[in-house]
Amino acid sequence: MSEKRNVYLDYSATTPTKPEVVETMIPYFTEKFGNPSAIYTIGANAKDAIDDARAKIAELINADPREIIFTSGGTESDNWAIIGTARKLQKKGKHIITTKIEHHAVLHSCAELEKEGFDVTYLNVDHDGIVDLDELKAAIRPDTILITVMMVNNEMGAVQPIAEIGKIAKEHNIVFHSDTVQALGNVPIDVKELGVDMISMSSHKIYGPKGIGAIYIRRGYNLPEYIYGGAQENKKRAGTENVPGIVGFGKAAELARINFDAHVKHVSELRDHFVKRVLAEIPHTYYNGSREHRHPGNANITFEYVEGESILLYLDAKGISTSSGSACSSKSLQPSHVLTAMGIPVVLIHGSIRFTFGDPTTMEDVDYAVDSLKEIIARLREITSMNVDLS
Ligand SMILES: *Cc1c(COP(=O)(O)O)cnc(C)c1O
């Protein structure tokens, strides 16, 4: 066994801010601190910096800069898109379609609307974690006002057929939102090809700072404002702008666009090596989710006969950081709603771990993680094997 090292394998929870990103942010805390709404030069300079960041984010998703509104992150964008649309269109209908595998920012927004009298259909997914388009079509009703389906799942990486869903939504004249937080920088996003009315984005998942994100709102779709106050963000989202955060997000988006191919190649090579070794060298392990339609840096693995929480603690003792699913559900011992929706039995869900790889990850990190896992799983199974026949 090699020497202990610190290996972070939780890039879907958050990413470190790239040094180039931090560097571009720093002046906006100090000498370039002006309020973007002011008419004097240091204010105007901050406004220019915001416009520049807006253009960079627009370029990453093939949008017009006027279609990008900054928010505090993916959660706010999801809440705004869903609750804002529901309230705007409630006279037309009160039915919303989403999936069972959404992030809690979407699920809990929908749950809130159910309390307000909206009716929500939660689509199933197949064993690969993908929604069925026929089930979606069958769920559409005359009073359906919104479809919200995530592009890439944060737990097991499945990529949904968003462009096809966009076509169906358009045919039925239904507003379509997608949470693309995990997709951004990892799978190509072209808002025109996808046929989306709104998408949610977050900076800290693409090597930018935390607490900043954006919503794309297609020109022609009038999403009502959600935060009331000043005239910032084209009167759509009030409050003095988080200028350093916006500048950092813009830089991270630029880097994500420039490095896209290299990033995807790097993380998918690490992931594939990891999965190949784990499945070959650790018995009774399963790879969860689609192999073909998948986030390039995601591996979700079930280790039969062991508890995920124990694996996480032993991994942490070896300097390896990872989580049992989404950051939100790993604090509770509830079985993952995503793996449950895929039809994975509860006993297997409890032995499931998400490993996500990022730009700073090396092949040595991956080998260290696999070597450590082999040792940990064998030890934990020794304890369990008093009760279970592993032959
Ligand atoms: C992280 C994440 C969010 C929340 O984004 P924040 O910027 O952390 O609020 C929403 N949806 C998905 C799929 C995510 O992975």
How would you concisely characterize the structure shown here?
This protein is of the alpha/beta class. The protein contains 14 helices and twelve strands.
Characterise this structure.
- With 391 residues, the protein is of the alpha/beta class.
- The protein folds into two domains: 7-16 and 261-384, Aspartate Aminotransferase, domain 1 (Alpha-Beta Complex); 19-258, 3-Layer(aba) Sandwich (Aspartate Aminotransferase, domain 2), CATH 3.40.640.
- It has 14 helices and twelve strands.
- It has helices at 19-25, 41-61, 74-89, 104-115, 133-139, 162-171, 191-194, 232-235, 243-258, 260-281, 308-317, 337-341, 346-349, 363-384, and strands spanning 7-8, 68-71, 95-99, 119-123, 144-148, 175-179, 198-202, 213-217, 285-287, 298-303, 320-321, 352-356.
- A seven-stranded mixed sheet has the order 2-8-7-6-5-3-4, sandwiched between helices. Strands 9-10-12 form a three-stranded antiparallel sheet.
- α6 (162-171) links the parallel β5 and β6 (175-179).
- α3 (74-89) packs parallel to α4.
- The longest helix is centred in the last third of the chain and has 22 residues, at 260-281.
- The structure holds pyridoxal-5'-phosphate.
